[in-house]
Specification:
The complex is a heterodimer. Chain A is built from eight helices and 18 strands. Chain A is of the alpha/beta class. By secondary structure, chain B is α/β, with parallel strands linked by helices. The chains are: A alpha/beta, B alpha/beta. The interface between A and B is large, with 89 and 77 residues.
């Protein structure tokens, strides 16, 4: 087992639906496997989730490790950690990836602790490369570079796990590109019988309310985002109206979310969602590095700010120094005029 | 009324640099960070964890012990905890703990919690703002061999040795029931942490670890000698105990840098590409020209 460089991706599913981040990770795993020569395995846990195995294969898994058990129907830390840890310890894959969601960030640390391996949280990029360790005085080939923002987003750290296997990481949603499924792909489905102990069942889920997100920021070709400069609810209404006229989604900086103008699922940036739309309009956003890192790859960026020295202008293609309460109505009427 | 029980509550807290308010003077000319100018603060969600523990104690009875692992300066957050109502605090410090990643940190914290004796609930903040990993809570729970309830937003009920907790999920919420002991990681939306009490600030103003006795003497020279100060503090339970690696039942190769499987390969300072931006005047004419250009380039329309 030690010579094979297999990459496992934990498949997060809820009510028969695989989380986007898991499919994004399958695409990334395929790319990494290209340079490592290992197999991409989907780790699919749940109950009666057989039909999801084919979805995982279509998205890049060469093998599906299907762990089916009635106690795995709803996600709970202990039975999931038991099932995943046992398999990880038994097979010691080279790399094991999880989405950095409320499930992935609950499960991965528990598994890493039990398997006594390193884990890096919230990665925004993964690469393969060599590492010359001063600590161990040794050259390690083909390690997983786990790249993540740290220190409030002011630095980007590259972390490695030279000695322990698997090399584990959680990865942010939306930073890896989702590839379209290829239904002609074939893969092996391997069924695993988990051993769940009574002590793993001390926690019960009494109720659960998960709403389907109505926000599609990540996939929207146009995003109009507001920040602290949108100093009242009326300003934010203008931002919504502009988004509506453009057929885009509304985004926000952390400042706007913290001020209560808009819900957290609209937040763009390192602690929110990473977007790369065709057009990004930043209105009243100063452009803290945490925000810019989540949108600077957008195709065209228009920034509107009263402060001519706002950092957002450094990444903007079009710079409008002015009050959004005046500029946005002009934009809206110019766009409506065009549409006639 | 159910009789009050003596629940043993443990809160794990951390002192962190205030990374959310990095000002321009924190960046040196060469683009590196001057950590020294960033104020050291009580990790925000750890204050929410402390608040949840104090509210638990007020509702069901018990005793709140706050632990922190860090340099000797981290005693500041322990005093802050005493000002808010903690019954007991311990500083866990040793050079051997330095450079610990989350695995080595949780191993050390687990050993410290075990040294306290029996416990019912361990509270920690969801994550610390210097690393944002959210890993230490779940890993400490795993090492203690107890269940974890992450993203805890409120304790709904406690009866028959079982706790009902509401969790905040990415898109929704979940209600879970779990037997004690367990570990909770607490989110910022859980509560509004109480401020320090003026009375307790006075009561605990001299609370200090042995590392700080010299500083206290400089401020209050009337104690004259360290011995006199120590006797005074001991009599009033104002000594903050310090545990080193030798005080814990630990294997040294699992501590600090040595016990950390992750290594930092490199650090890059975030420098985003700066573009030459086209200035658009905030007038009707300027905006119309812009819209025209966007339409011509098929960006909109």
């Amino acid at each position: 087992m030690t010579d094979t460089k297999n990459i496992w991706v934990f498949i997060e599913q809820d009510e028969g639906q695989i989380a986007d981040v898991s499919l994004e990770l399958l695409a990334k795993a395929q790319e990494l496997a290209g340079s490592l020569g290992g197999e991409v395995c989907a780790l699919l846990c749940g109950h009666d989730v057989d039909e999801l195995a084919q979805t995982a294969i279509s998205h890049g898994a060469g093998r599906v490790l299907l762990i089916d058990h009635p106690e795995l129907a709803l996600y709970r830390s202990l039975p999931y950690a038991r099932a995943v840890t046992d398999l990880v310890r038994d097979r010691r894959p080279y790399i094991c990836l999880f989405g950095a969601t409320s499930v992935g960030r609950d499960l991965a640390p528990r598994v890493a602790s039990a398997a006594r391996v390193g884990l890096t949280a919230d990665c925004t990029d993964l690469q393969i490369g060599d590492y010359n360790s001063k600590k161990d005085k040794q050259l390690y080939k083909d390690l997983l570079y786990q790249i993540r923002p740290a220190f409030g987003g002011n630095i980007i750290a590259t972390i490695v796990n030279p000695r322990t296997r698997p090399q584990m990481a959680t990865v942010r949603e939306g930073v890896m590109r989702l590839q379209p499924p290829d239904d002609t792909r074939e893969g092996v489905i391997e069924r695993i019988e988990p051993v769940i102990e009574d002590q793993d069942l001390v926690l019960q889920v009494l109720s659960r309310q998960v709403r389907q997100s109505t926000v599609h920021l990540k996939d929207s070709p146009i995003v109009v985002a507001g920040g602290a400069g949108a100093s009242c609810k009326e300003d934010f209404e203008l931002i919504r109206e502009l988004a509506h006229v453009l057929g885009g989604e509304v985004g926000a900086s952390r400042a706007a979310v913290d001020a209560g103008f808009i819900s957290p699922e609209h937040q763009v940036g390192q602690t929110g969602i990473t977007v790369r739309p065709r057009l990004y309009i930043a209105a009243g956003i100063s452009g803290a590095i945490q925000h810019r890192a989540g949108m600077d790859q957008s195709n065209k960026i228009i920034a509107i700010n009263t402060d001519p020295n706002a950092p957002i202008f450094q990444v903007a293609h079009y710079k409008i120094v002015g009050d959004l309460a005046e500029v946005i109505p002009l934009l809206i009427s110019a766009l409506r005029e065009k549409a006639k | 009324m159910p009789s009050e029980q003596n629940y043993k509550l443990v809160v794990l807290v951390k002192q962190v640099p205030d990374t959310h308010n990095v000002t321009s003077d924190a960046m040196k000319e060469d683009g590196t960070m001057n950590r020294a100018v960033l104020p050291a603060i009580f990790n925000p969600e750890d204050l929410n964890a402390l608040e949840m523990a104090l509210a638990f104690k007020e509702r069901y009875g018990g005793e709140v012990t706050v632990l922190t692992m860090g340099p000797s300066k981290a005693a500041e957050v322990l005093r802050e905890s005493l000002y808010r109502g903690a019954d007991r605090v311990v500083l866990i410090t040793d050079r051997k703990f330095a450079g610990a990643d989350t695995l080595a940190t949780s191993y050390t914290l687990k050993s410290a919690v075990e040294k306290l004796g029996a416990f019912d609930v361990v509270f920690c903040g969801r994550q610390a703002i210097d690393g944002d990993t959210a890993q230490v809570g779940p890993q400490t729970a795993e090492k203690l061999g107890i269940p974890q309830i992450t993203y805890a937003e409120s304790i709904v009920e406690l009866s028959g040795g079982e706790i009902v907790v509401q969790r905040a999920l990415d898109r929704g919420m979940e209600m879970v029931k779990c037997s004690l002991p367990c570990l909770l990681t607490v989110v910022a939306s859980a509560n509004r942490p109480r401020p320090a009490s003026a009375r307790k600030r006075i009561e605990y103003k001299l609370a200090a670890t042995p590392f700080e006795y010299q500083d206290v003497l400089e401020k209050w020279p009337e104690f004259e000698t360290v011995e006199a100060l120590e006797a005074y503090l001991a009599e009033r339970s104002l000594q903050i105990p310090v545990w080193s690696a030798a005080d814990l039942d630990v294997e040294e190769d699992k501590l600090g840098l040595e016990g950390s499987p992750t290594q930092v390969y490199k650090i890059n300072f975030v420098v985003l590409e700066t573009r030459d931006s086209k200035e658009v005047s905030p007038t009707q004419e300027g905006v119309e020209t812009l819209v025209q250009e966007l339409v011509q380039e098929y960006v909109v329309g």
